[in-house]
Amino acid sequence: MEDKDDYKFLKIRDAIASINQRLSIIGVILEFGLPRKTKCSDCSCTLKIIDESHQKPGISVNVFTENMDKLPHIASTGDIILLSHVMIKTHNGEVCVVYNKKFSSFALYKGKHGEDFLPYQISPRFCLREQDKKFIAGLRKWMLEFKLDEGSSNFFMLREIKEGVRVNLACKLLHIWEIAQDEWMAFVWDGTDTPPTSICTKLEDEMYNQLPLHLEPLPLSRDILRTFPVVGTILRVIIDHSIQKHILHLLKADTWVKLLNVLCEVNGGLWYGVLTPFTKLRYMSNEDHLLKDCQRIYDARLSLTLGRMPYWSFPRPSLITEVCDEHTVFGTLIDVLTNSKVTNIFNCVVRVVAAFPWRAEDFCSPLGMYRMRLTLEDPTARIHAFVYADDGEKFFDGYPSVDILTRKRNKLLGVAVSNDGKEIKNAHRNPPWMQCCLKSYRIVRNDIWGSRCYRIYGTKLLG
């Protein structure tokens, strides 16, 4: 630095070479983790900062304070932080900045769109200096032209996630909802389909503990669903209660974000993510290539005749059904749920994950008429669809014996069987993808949307 008073403010490149020294540093916040308690009862959070001297991968800043209120409350990635009297250390072979609660201090400023030099948060020990303004102005000017290229190898698409594994996701925040008092859920999307899961429940569980249609306690309104993309999984993301007040104000619908260290799990055969104190958040610019890749995948799928078919059903669904209406355009189940007509017909590729009643001898009423409910899923949604009367006769090809109906049911629901055709107890089920025709209808004249139901029609289960 040219001015004598400025010598302690180092560029990141120079700070990295100053191991075990106390110094001051300024940088742009690339990402930040959520506050958490340490084993020593302190509170901590982790930031990653960059400047023009060290753009990739940045340097981590580990902040330790006596309580949550004294941690940096960052409004957005891209904001600027001044750190005074911090130590440069090495941890697991990597150089990092350590903020000590006894002698370090900080100030937070708006990023490239900031119009003044007033910090929006300042720690008690931080001393504002007139010469700090030129450093802030310099970083703001640099950020106007800066574009971060991280590569895609560190990020997973939703079609690549695995149960029990923490991943980094680049995704669009579609909706944030308080699903119960002080319980929040985010709905995210990247245009790809999550992998189909094995169904762990027994067939008979559907009587008293049916598979959920969704993970939220109440279904989303049709108005909200109509704002969602019609292709690609909408992943439900649970926000850990301990971090809600630190992250909710940062989650804005209709924005693209990078969520680092998201735990992926399955409940009732439905995927969900969990934001924990170890999750980190970044916003994405409209020029980010990951965003463009997601949008390109979505646009390509919409342009294809078969683009609404589940990714996991390609090159074609299993040949266990034949349908009478081959010319109806394929639709996803979210297309079905959000269609503007109460009564309509659809051609879908789905899995049947549950049936009620589940025993073949109960598929028909005492009067000999089919009446059963199937739970259908594709990557976008789950619904109940009924097999009723003549449509059931078509579906099961008449009224075959109980043994034949059982065999058809097992094929439809992915029930594992031995070589001699007997069911394997406690085995997970893997239902095949099948094509079927659906029709929607209402059952109450004065409540056409609230009473809307779905039936399978014009579909025959083969074999």
UniProtKB/TrEMBL annotation:
Keyword tRNA processing attributed: no
Pfam families: OB_POT1A, POT1
Principal location class: nucleus
Telomeric single stranded DNA binding POT1/Cdc13 domain residues: 9-144
Gene Ontology CC entries for this record: nuclear telomere cap complex
Keyword Cytoplasm in record: no
GO molecular function, one term: G-rich strand telomeric DNA binding
Coiled-coil stretches noted in the UniProt entry, renumbered to this chain: none
Alphabetical GO biological process terms: regulation of telomere maintenance via telomerase; telomere capping
Taxonomic superkingdom: Eukaryota
Protein name in UniProt: Telo_bind domain-containing protein
Gene source species: Cephalotus follicularis (Albany pitcher plant)
